[in-house]
Design a protein that fits this description.
- The chain is of the alpha+beta class.
- It has helices at residues 9-18, 23-41, 49-64, 107-114, 157-164, 181-187, 225-235, 240-243, 276-291, 306-322, 327-338, 347-355, 359-380, 421-428, 459-473; strands at 46-47, 76-80, 118-123, 135-136, 140-141, 171-175, 190-193, 217-222, 262-265, 295-297, 385-389, 407-410, 413-416, 434-441, 447-453.
- Among the domains are: 2-251, Amidase signature (AS) enzymes (Alpha-Beta Complex), CATH 3.90.1300; 306-373, no CATH class.
- The protein has 15 helices and 15 strands.
- The strands form 4 sheets. An 8-stranded mixed β-sheet has the order 6-8-7-14-15-11-9-10, sandwiched between helices. Strands 1-3-2 form a 3-stranded mixed β-sheet.
Length: 483
């Protein structure tokens, strides 16, 4: 029976529709798993079990009447704590928002409910959604289900850990610096970062009515690529205001055989070296594609200076992340920037300058970003998919030291902690879609995931590629609990 909790959401929905399992039975089973496993993992600190059971009963009653509630009829899921759900807090791991309890569902939650799903609770995050780890003073630390001493990633770390541990059928996270993608990689599951603007950010907010921010996106996390496709269709589309004048029409997956893809592969880079194990997985995928008849290149790249491109991303990111900081923080940064040498282009200097930039400086950065987007457009007119790492290593041990003191060991060499933003940023700055897919476990039993990137609005192409490649290389593997 335990295997059922690892099934894709699309298969669970079919079983419920056919009467092979009731929504109530499945919901109670997931609740039991959370009660049993989450004491050690701490992925689902906000729990809405009573409502979930009530919603499951209603779903079963509707089925008995022959009524369908949607493609996720009766499927229990969880969602990242940063989303707005009636009767639950959306704190983003910040003490100042500990009592920020919503009175009604946000847009994303409502869309999942309209598709027939219901919620078991909400999953853990780092403070301000700003770390590759998921811990905060409100909910504590989330652990990786495969090794409790390691991070599940962040900021959607609780989301990916809950999916990997079989404590929920489906999840939704958010991403500005890999926050969907790196947890998917660390937990051996699938995660999709949509093209910017495809999924509204409404309902993923600390303060009601916040406009969509630059770079940031909302998207699904799942154990199966088919679930990503379904969840993206549920989450995407215009808000009520936008729907007056436009509708979303994402193209369907246009390539359905691995042998028909033109794929560029990027193993590692001197700007952010990855482990030999990670680079080997890129090569494994490349070899598999070549064997299937795909056109594969390990030298094809867009016509971009990637050091400058990464500086552009860092600057745009810092502008977003500093926008809600208190005035005393900004004043301190102003003093630090005044003391910087003009030729200091270290990541710390780039971030500090960006945090206090004038709007005209942001507009100039946006112009640089547009040049990046044009270069990627030209690249994806010749290539269908880019395969590259998501992070330099598999899940690393918990490290709660001040961020400036942290490093990441890559094949025995200490690298800057936030250097790993490179692999997220090359995709995020130009607003491209990316699907992280699992490639199996490393020598330590930890997952390695890779990114499948494509041109703007080719989200379903990315997801279909991920579905096809894991049929050849292996997909999600449930954790083997040693604790």
């Amino acid at each position: 029976m335990s295997d059922i909790y690892y099934l894709p959401a699309v298969e669970l929905a079919r079983k419920i529709a056919r009467g092979e399992i009731s929504s109530l039975e499945l919901t109670e089973g997931y609740i039991d798993r959370i009660a049993t496993l989450d004491e050690r993992i701490n992925a689902v600190p906000v729990r809405t079990f009573e409502r979930a059971i009530s919603d499951a009963r209603r779903a079963d009653e509707a089925r008995a009447r022959g009524q369908s509630l949607g493609p996720l009829h009766g499927v229990p899921m969880t969602i990242k704590e940063s989303y707005v759900m009636a009767g639950t807090p959306a704190t983003w791991g910040l003490e100042a928002f500990r009592h920020n309890v919503a009175s009604e569902d946000g847009l994303a939650v409502q869309r999942f409910r309209d598709a027939g799903a219901h919620f078991l609770g909400k999953t853990n995050v780092p403070a301000d959604l700003a770390d590759f780890q998921s811990y905060n003073t409100i909910y504590g630390t989330t652990n990786n289900p495969r090794d409790l001493d390691r991070t599940p990633g962040g900021s959607s770390g609780g989301s990916a850990a809950a999916i990997a541990a079989g404590m929920t059928a489906l999840e939704a996270g958010s991403d500005i610096g890999g926050s969907i993608r790196n947890p998917a990689h660390f937990n051996g599951v699938f995660g999709h970062k949509p093209t910017w603007g495809v999924v509204p950010q409404s309902g993923h907010e600390l303060i009601a009515g916040a406009p969509d921010s630059d770079l940031s996106v909302c998207g699904p996390i799942a154990r199966d690529a088919r679930d990503l496709k379904l969840a993206l269709s549920v989450m995407s589309g215009p808000t009520a205001r936008e729907a007056i004048g436009w509708k979303l029409d994402l193209p369907a997956a246009d390539i359905t055989s691995l042998g028909d893809f033109r794929v560029a592969v990027w193993h590692t880079d001197e700007l952010a070296p990855v482990s030999s194990a990670t680079a080997a997985r890129v090569q494994m995928v490349a070899d598999c594609l070549a064997a299937k008849g795909a056109v594969v290149s390990d030298t094809a790249r867009p016509d971009i200076d990637f050091r400058k491109a990464h500086d552009t991303y860092q600057s745009l990111l810092s502008a977003v992340m500093s926008s809600a900081q208190p005035s005393e923080y900004i004043e301190r940064l102003k003093s630090e920037v005044k003391a910087l040498r003009k030729d200091d282009v270290s990541p710390e200097a780039v971030n500090a300058r960006a945090a206090i930039m004038m709007h005209r400086d942001w507009l100039r950065l946006n112009f640089k970003r547009e040049k990046l987007r044009l270069a990627w457009d030209a690249f994806f007119s010749q290539w269908d998919i880019l395969i590259c790492p998501q992070m330099a290593t598999s899940a690393f041990p918990h490290d709660h030291r001040p961020m400036r003191e942290r490093v990441l060991e890559v094949d025995g060499v200490d690298r800057p902690y936030f250097e790993q933003l490179f692999w997220s940023g090359i995709v995020t700055a130009p607003l491209l879609p990316s699907t992280v897919f699992p490639t199996g476990l490393d020598q330590h039993g930890l997952p390695i995931g890779l990114q499948a990137v494509s041109g703007p609005y080719r989200d379903y192409r990315c997801i279909e590629f991920a579905r096809l490649i894991v049929e050849e290389t292996g997909g999600f593997e449930p954790p083997v609990y040693s604790w």
